[in-house]
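To fix ideas, we close by showing one paired sequence and structure record:
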Amino acid sequence: MRILDIGCGINPQKDANYRIDKVKTQYTTHVINIENEPLPFNDDYFDKIYAICMLEHLFDIEYAIREIYRCLKTDGIFILQVPYFRYPIGKNPLHKSEWSWCAFDYWLNEDTRMLLKNTPKFKLLRKEFIFSDNMNKWILKLCQFIIKRNPFLYENTLSVFFSARLIHIEVTK
């Protein structure tokens, strides 16, 4: 399997056999700025692509998503995580964008009213909030109960007080 980790930094995904970042580290196999450089791989090349806590650092997310889509095989899996905008670490001066529950919906087939002609269209496999390990278990259960029924209710009420840490999304072509 060909697995790409984009923005691997110093904490790469263990199963990735291709690792890129815009700076050279001991883990990178390719130095590329995904924001404005094409990925040096053929179309439909990767079985899995990770983008863990890196999309929020880009000004041109659309370009990066198009490159990821181009290099992902049909039925390949794209896994991304972004800081939830209400979580304190989400307020980082190095972040160029903030991510809410529906921010990635722009690139999903279900949200066709917003899709432009050449916009990549992924299919959602999984989307969930990831909470801090030290959150009270009863509050966590309450948040998960509400999220399962209506994630927008959580986002507009409880998340102000009990914020998720990350949004985890898995999609396919």
